[in-house]
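Data availability (excerpt). The following record was deposited with the supplementary files.
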Amino acid sequence: MLTIIFTLLAYLSCVAGYWNSTTRIGMVLYPKFEQLDVVGPHTIFSFAKVFLMAEKRGLVRSRIGTQWQVDHDFQNHPEFDVLFVPGGLVDDELANPAILEFIETQAKKAKVVLTVCTGSVLLAKTGLLDGSRATTNKMAWKKFTPQFPDVNWVKHARWVQDGKYITSSGVSAGTDMAAYFVKKYFGEQTLNNSLKVAEYIWNSNPDYDPFSGSADE
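Predicted structure:
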């Protein structure tokens, strides 16, 4: 009995020590990414070490035209624990070996992989979501989900977790997913602090998805 207790305490100590403010989150940017997919979660992750990566260092233009300074490219970047892939207009990136190979390689190494919106489509393109449950932007549902029939797409979901993969529906759903991730891996107090900083009211129910009807339009 004592052995079991000590083992459990050691495990809890390890978990508590691993997921803390030193946790590194690497966000992948690409031309025409959806800005809110990044801004919302980035704010929720304000306690952690977050950095941006792209195929090339320099300015990356979002879908709405704002330009983001990216200091790390796919060859030179800090190590990270969590891979984050936002959505956007992904058609060009689905034919871009550089970003697909990077996502595949880093997703295999990451402890957790987060995608927002059509970011899950990029992850699906690597084959890593085959056999897993996932969701994506409902307005892009008819266009992309038939291309990846081996993924168990969940239409009615704000976000879905299957193992280390956590995928969200479109745009603002990414912030709700980010809050879920923080609560699950960092605890309720850390989440409450992040929500207070963001003055954000979290939709904590992954099954509450009032936009799922858009998938049928």
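Summary of structural features: Residues 1-18 have pLDDT under 50 and may be disordered.
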